[in-house]
Amino acid sequence: MLSDLLVMVDRRAQAVNLREKTIINERHAVRMLEPVLSLGVRAASVSDIWVRYADRCIDDGLAASTVRQRIDCVAAVVAWVIHADIKFKPAAPGSLGRMLDAMRTAARAIGKRIKRYKALSKPARVSVDEYAAVVHEIESLREPYRSTVRMMLCFGLRASETLSLSSKSLISSGRLFIPDRVTKNHSDLLLPIPIKYIPLIEQWLSVIGESEIKYNTLVTTISRAGIKWRCHDMRKLFRTCAAIRGEDYLATELILNHAVKDVPSVYLQTPPYSAMRKALTNSIEEYLQVK
After folding, report:
1. Which of 78, 110, 113, 129 has its CB surrounded by the most CB atoms within 10 Å?
2. pTM over the 0.70 mark
3. Does Cell division count among this protein's keywords (predicted)?
């Protein structure tokens, strides 16, 4: 069965267009699990056999996460063979299904042995009380980094979204457009710009667009300036300030391009652009007042 599974790995790689690294991992996983696979389909359909072999590997010094990952790799190949309805000489589809269930059951059991650590909360490095100090630090940066961080704070943008901006991002309808290829959730972002601030935003966008700013360079510039906050803290600060001002919740979440819970997109045919524009107006005005 070992050689047949290796053939299936190669066929799956061609059909699904897998990365070279993934192919290597799957081939290695098949060879590593040879002691179980060589016992035949009937034995490989018993989850306890997989667990006992995994325990032996772990006792020999292999990490539980590695063992589970190897079993998951082989399970992925077997699942593909079943779903693609490919004739597999060593076993009938029903036997393959039982073998797949046994591997998945064993993988879950092994997963309980993996050391897990509580996720640490990641509060912002600056509080809303330090807003004025943050603005002054932004203004102390040299261009084009100053305009870049201004956009992050005033619009709640992610660093990757901001670095993709240029003069062309401001479309004729007076809205800022960020395509889905650069947003985290792969969804287009369209923000209504307050009319009176369009010339100012055009100026900031022009500065950003004329310079090919790299993320690492931006982070390094902020760090070397002796500033304790980082790019994503501007997004958190924008959200906190909006909440304090009492901005519309849905409008703020749409500005941040978050997935809004309990509101499927099919029910949100027209975003509340007026509320979004109001929130952005207040954000820009608050920044300019402190500046």
Report:
1. 110
2. no
3. no
d(C-alpha 57, C-alpha 224), whole Å: 47
- Alpha carbons within 13 angstroms on the beta-carbon side of residue 97 total 6
Q: How far apart are CA 180 and CA 185, in angstroms?
A: 8
Cβ 137 vs Cβ 231: under 8 Å: no
pLDDT digits (tens, 9 = 90+) for 152-169: 999 999 999 999 999 999
- What are the Cα distances from residue 112, in Å, to 49, 64, 115, 138? 17, 9, 8, 47
Q: What is the mean pLDDT of the segment spanning 276-281?
A: 95
Does the pLDDT of residue 266 top 50, yes or no?
A: no
Q: How far is the C-alpha of 236 from the C-alpha of 234, rounded, in Å?
A: 5
pLDDT 10s digits, 196-237: 999 999 999 999 999 889 999 999 999 999 999 999 999 999
Residue 129 CA: distances (Å) to CA of 122, 217, 225, 236, 280 = 18, 28, 21, 13, 20
Tell me phi and psi for residue 176, to 5 degrees.
-90, 125
Top pLDDT among 173 and 269 is at 173
pLDDT band at 284 (very low <50, low <70, confident <90, very high): very high
- Within 10 A of 96 (CB to CB), how many other CB atoms are there? 20
Q: In what order do the strands lie in the sheet with 189-192?
A: 170-171, 175-178, 189-192
* Angle CA 13–14–18, to nearest 5: 40
Would you tell me how many other CB atoms lie within 10 Å of the CB of residue 225? 13
Q: Please name which of 274, 129, 136 lies closest in space to residue 194, comparing C-alpha atoms.
A: 274
Long-range contacts from 265-271, C-beta under 8 angstroms, 24+ separation: 271/190
Location of structure tokens 């998945």 = 104
